[in-house]
Amino acid sequence: MEFPAVLFPSYFGAGPPQEEGGPAPVAGWGEHGQVLEGNRGRRQAQPAFVPRRGTTGERWEAADAAAVPVLLPSEGCWIPSPAPQDILFRSGLCRNLRVGKCGATLDFAKQLGHFFVDHPEDAFGSLGHLLHKNFYLGNSKLKVTASRNSTIRMTALVEDLDRLEARRGCPRQHLASRLRWFSHLCRDWLFEVPLGLLADYLHEELMQQWSSLLFDDSLTGGALAWLPREDEEAPVGCLVHPGGQAMNHLYFQDMVLEELPRARGSPAQFELSGHVRQVAAARVDGQDFVGVRSDYHCGVWKVRGKTGAAPTPLQVVRTDVPASCLTVSPHLPGELSVCTEGGTIYLWNVETGLQQLRHDPQTMFFRDHSPWRWSDFTAHPRVLSCADRTGLQCLDARAPKKCHFDLFKVGEEAGCQQGERVVLPMYLGRAHPSQYLVTTQFSVYVLDERLPLMPVLKWAHMMKAPPLFAHLMPGKPGRSHKVLLGASRTQELLLLQYLGGSQSACQLAGTPQKLHSITGCLQHLPTQLPHRHHLLQQRLAAPAAGLAATLQEDRLHKSMLIFQLSEAGDVFCQRLTHNAVQTPAPSSRDETITAPGSSPLFEAPASSPQSLGAAALRYRRWLRALFRACREPPRYTWPPSLSQRRLFTRRDLEGPAGLSSLQQQMRQRLRQAMQEGGRIQHWEPLALQSPPLPQTLEPAGGPDPLSARLTAAWAGDWEQWWEERTSFSVAQRQRALRERRRRQKRAQGHRSLSASFTSSLTYQSELSELSDTGPPVLSPRRPPILSQEGTPPASSPPVRSPPASPAPDEALLSSQSLRCRGIPKERRKTLRDYLSVWAEGPPEPLEPPGSQASQLCIPSSQSQLSSASQPRRKRPRMGF
Amino acid sequence: SSNEHTLNFKKSKEACLSYIQDALLQKQWKRAAEFLTCYAESLEKDYSREHISPSEMIWRIGTEILWHRSQGSMKEFSCFMEQMKSLGVKRYLKVCLEHVFHLLCNGQIDEAYQNLSLAESWRFGEQTAIQDKEMKLIQAYRGLLDYYSWSKQKNILLEHGEDGFSDLAVEQEMHGYFRKAAMNLKEIIKIPGVWDIFVKCYVDLLEFYGDHNEARQVLNEYAYNSKFPANPNAHVYLYQFLKRQGEPKKSLISALKILHDIVPSHELMIDFNTMLQKSKKRKNRRLGLEVIFAALDYAGWKENAKAWSCLARQVKQIVISEKHLDWIKQEWNSRKDWWPAFHFSRYLAKRNWRENQSLSYEKALVAGILMGKDCKYFKYVSHQGCKAQLKQFRMLKKFVNKHSPVYLRIAG
C-alpha cells in the first residue's frame, strides 16, 4: 500500500463552505486544476508536468445506437408512482398563490375526500351505525310518530352536497347555509378518527410524498447487481434484480454474455414482503454475498461462485424505522452494515447477529433535516464509515465510541459549495484499498483514508439530478479505473476514468462521457400508434433504479457492459468497446449526430450485421411482450353523464299529475333534448331559443360499421372484430333485427327510463372503479349490467378479473351489495325499482360514444365527468 | 415586452448551453464549437446573476474544445486564452494559471514562465480572497520554475566542477535563481495546504546551501502544524531528512511513531518494524509487534509477503525464546474473532498456495502458532508442502508441532 510520494498542491481551509454556489452547468470543463512534475528520467533536462485533469484516458465507444432491453418485460402492467399532478392543487384560484413564495400547494382537501370515499367504514363507521335511526334519507315526508322527534330528513342535505359538487370550479359558489350549519354541528364528532389528527397525518404523508417526488433517496445505491462467474470459458454471470408489479420479487438470472447478454434458463425467484430498494453485492472468498434492502426488512443471500449455483437465503432482519442503507463487506464473509433513518448504524454478522455501532438522530457536522444515513466498509475490516448529508466519519467497530476520525466534511476542507450535501459514498476498495468515492449534487470526490478531509480528486460532474448510483470497474495496474455515475429521475449515466492512488497522485483521465439512457432509445424505435407511443414513452421514462456493469476482456478486444434498471422493472444494457488506437483527431463517428427519427438500430447495418440485427430483434420481441402485458382492455370512453337520481324522484316519474304547465313544458323539452342528443342552451321559453344544433355525427342506432371497425383497430383488436363480423350468421342477424324491432316498440313506453339508463350505468362504473379492481370492462355488445359485474372479455389479462358473481343483476340488487356501495337504505328500493324495470326486457342498445348525454347542459360536475371518462391513477396509501 | 424578450433570450441561451453540454459529453467537439459561436452572443446581454458568468462559461467550454480539437496547435490555444483573459477581470488570474498549466503540460516551460511573470505584475483594484490565493499560487509556481532553472545550473556547475574549473557567471546566475525561488516558495508553504512539491524543492535549496536548521524547521512545521491537513508525506519528508542528517535512531523512531499513529498502513511501517525489531529495548520490540500486526489489519497488506515474513520472524523469535508470549496474546485477543476469516480461510490457503508459495509459508507459520496445528490454513498449506516434498514446509510442520503448547497459552 504505497502512498504517492508527491501530491498535487492545494489549499486547505477549515470551517463552513465559503463559496456560494448552485448548480453550475459547465463547471467541470476546461480546467487542469493543478500540475505536478511527472516521472522524468534522470537524464531528461526539462521537467515534465502532468495535470490533475486532462490526461488522456481510454477511449470507449458505444457499440449500439441505444440501450437494448436485456429481459422481457414482466407480466402485468407497471403502475407508475404518483406524479406531481396527483398531489398538487391545481385550480385557477390557487394559481396565483402558487406563483408566490410558498412553492407547492398540496391538494389536501382532495386527498382527504379520497379517504372518505375510499374508506367510509373507517371514517364514519361506528357513528353511522349509531345515528342510523336518526337520519332519514327517504323522500317522503316524515310522519308524525314517536320517532319523529329524534329523526331528521337528510335528503335535502344530500342534494345540497350534490349541487355543491356539481358547482365545483364555479366562481360563484356559495356554501349552502344548511351545509354550513351541518358541518358546524358535526365537525367535532362525526368522524371516527379525530379529524385534526387525521389531517395531520395526511398532511405529513403528503409532504413526504412530495419531497420524495422532488428527491427520492430511498433508492440510493441502486437495486441491481452483477455477479461475475469465472469458472467457465464463455463469459457468464448472474444478474440480481427486483421485479414484479410491486418490485417485491427478487430474481437471480443467469446470463451469457455474447454480443448482447442473453438470459440462460429461468431465474431463481424469491417473493419478499416489501419493495426492493437496494441490492448490494460483494465477493468474499469466491462467494457472492447479496444484501437486499426494503423499507423495513434487510436480507442476505449467498451465491456460490460457480455457474448454476442456487442462491441460498441466509438471514433477514426487521427494522422498526425504515432502513436507508445496506452494504456488504468485501473483507469478511457474511458481514454487512445496516443504517436506519433513526440514525442507528449496525454491523450485521450472519453468525453473531447485529452489533449497534452508533445511535445518533442528529447529523454529524452541522444540522441537516434529512434522516438519511449511510455506511460502508473501509480498508480495515473492523473500521466502518458512516455518513449523513453533512459528511463521513470512520468508526472502529471494536470501540465505536472512542475511536473515530472524520473522513469527509461538507466544508471548506474539501472546497465545497454552500448547500452542498453528500448523496452517495462508496468504498472503492477494488480499485485501491484506501480509496473512497463521495458524490454530492454538484461534485464527485475521491478520498484517501490516509489523508482524511482532503479530497485527492474533485470534479464538478454537472449532472442534472444528483447521482444516486455508482459503480466501479477497477483497472489493471497502469490502466485507469472506471467509475459510472447514475442519476435516478433523469436517467443520466456518466463514465469517468481516474488514475493513480498508490505510486502517483490521483488524476482524472480523459473526458467524462455520457452514456445512453433508457429513454434515449425511443427515437430509434419504429413508429408506434399514438397510444402505444404514449405507453412506451411513459415506460421508458420511468426513473432509473439501479446500475451494474462488467468489464469483459478477451485477447483481441475489451468491452464494457452496462446494465441499467428502471423503476418499471426493465433492465436495459449497452455495450462499450475499447478503442485501443489513440487517435487524437476525432474519427468521423464522433461527429455523426443521430437525428431524431433516424434509426440506426433498425436499419440494415453495414459494419457488424449480427449485432445490430440482434438489437433490433431484441427490441421487437420486447415491444411485443410489453404491449401484450400492458394491453389495455378495450375501453370505450363513455359519454360524460351525471346522476339524475336527484332530479327525478320516484314521485316525479309516477306521472305528471300536479305539475304546472311551465314545469311540464320544461320536462318535455328536457326529454326531447335527451332523445335527440341535443342540448338546451337556455332555460328560457322556446321563442327566445337559438336554432337547434346540428345533429350529432353518429346515428342513434349504434356505431356504423366503419367507426366500429376503426374503434376496434384503434384498441388493437381489429382481428377479433373482423372474425366476429364474418362469423355473424344469418340467423343471428335475423334475431338481432327482430330484437331491435321489439326494442323500438318497447322504447316508446320507457322513454323516460331510457334516459336515466346512462346515469345508473355511470354510477356503477364509478363504484366499480372505487373498488380497486381496475378500470371497468365494458363491451357494447353485451347488456351493460352483465358486462359490468360479469367476467371480463377474454382479451383482458387474467390478472384483473373482478370477482365473478353467478347472477349478476341479482347480486347487484341484493340489499347487501347495495349497502356496501353506500346506497342509503331508503334509496335502495328506488334503485331496485329502476333496475327491475330493466330486467324485464333487454335494454336499449347503448348509445355510441359522444352522443346524447354529453350534450346535456345540466349544471355538470366537471370532476365527476373526468373521473368517469379517464381512469384514475391508482391510489397509494392513505387514500391517494 | 422587454421583459418577455429577456425571458426568451434567457431561454434560448439555456437551450444553447444544454446543446453544448450534450455535445461535449458525447465528445462531439465540432458540434460543440459550432454552438459555442452562437453562445458568444450571450456576452452582449449579460443579465444573469448566476454563479458562473457567461464569460467564464465560454472560457471553460472553449478550452475544453481546444484541448481536443486544436491538434496540438499551441498558438491557437494561446490566442484564445489571451482573449479570455481580457474578457473577465474577476477570473483573470484563474485563466492565467490554467494557461500556464497547459503550457507546462505541453513542455513549454519558458512561455509558462513568461506568463507567470506577467500575471504576477497584474493589479486591479482590491483583491478578493480567491484572487489572493491565486496570486500566491502563481508566485509559487514561478518559484518552482526558478528552482528547476537553479537545479539545471547546479547540474551544469557540478559537471563542470568535475572537470576542474568553475564558471562564475553560471554560479551567479544559479544564486540568483536560488533567491527568487526561495523567496516565492517560502511564502506559500506558510499557508495551510498540501505543498509537497514546493516543500521538497525548498528543503532541497536550503540543504544545498547548508541551512539545515531552517530546513528542519520548515519540515517540522509542515508535519506538525495542526492547521495543516494530516498529510503522511509531511512525516515521510521529515523522516527522510532526519535519515539524511544521520540523526540517532531514537529521533527516527519517534518520527515514524507519529506516522504509525496517523497512518498505520503506511509502507514505511516495514522499515519501522525492522528498525524496532533490531532495537535492544523491550518496549521498542513490543511496539514493533504492534506495528506489524496493525499493518496486516489492512486489506491492502493482505498479500504482502514482506510484511508476513516480518511478522513470522518476530513471532518465531518470541516462541523460541518463550519470553513475552503475552505480547502475542494481547495482539491476538483483539483479532481472533476476525483474522481467521480474513487471513486464514481455506479459500485463501488454496489461493495463496497456488499464487505465492513463500507467502503461504509465512502465513502458515503465523497461523500455526496463533491458531494451533488444526487450523485450516496451516493444515492445507503444510499438507500441500509436504506433498510437494519441500523441506521448508516439513520443517515448518515440525516447528509448529513442537511448539503446540504455545498455542494453548495464547488462546487461553
From TrEMBL, chain A:
Region Disordered: start-end pairs: 582-608, 689-708, 739-758, 764-826, 839-880
**Bias regions of kind Basic residues — which residues?**
739-749, 871-880
Q: Which InterPro entries match?
A: TAF1C, TAF1C_beta-prop, TAF1C_C, TAF1C_HB, WD40/YVTN_repeat-like_dom_sf, WD40_repeat_dom_sf
Looking at the record, the residues that make up the TAF1C helical bundle domain are: 534-747
Q: Which GO terms describe its molecular function?
A: RNA polymerase I core promoter sequence-specific DNA binding
- Which GO cellular component terms, listed alphabetically, does the Swiss-Prot or TrEMBL entry include? fibrillar center
Task: Give the source's domain of life in one word.
Answer: Eukaryota
Query: Domain TAF1C beta-propeller spans what residues?
Result: 290-429
* Matches recorded under Pfam families: TAF1C_beta-prop, TAF1C_C, TAF1C_HB
- Give residue spans, biased composition: Pro residues: 794-806
Tell me which residues make up the TAF1C C-terminal domain. 814-880
Q: Where is the composition biased (Low complexity)?
A: 854-870
- Protein name according to UniProt: TAF1C polymerase
UniProtKB/TrEMBL annotation, chain B:
Q: Name one Pfam family in it.
A: TAF1_subA
Top-level taxon of the source organism? Eukaryota
Q: Which GO terms describe its biological process?
A: transcription by RNA polymerase I
Q: Name one GO cellular component term.
A: RNA polymerase I transcription regulator complex
Q: Enumerate the InterPro entries for this protein.
A: SL1/TIF-IB_Component, TAF1A
Descriptive protein name: TAF1A polymerase
> In which organism is this protein found?
Anthoscopus minutus
User: Top-down, what is the taxonomic lineage of the species of origin?
Assistant: Eukaryota, Metazoa, Chordata, Craniata, Vertebrata
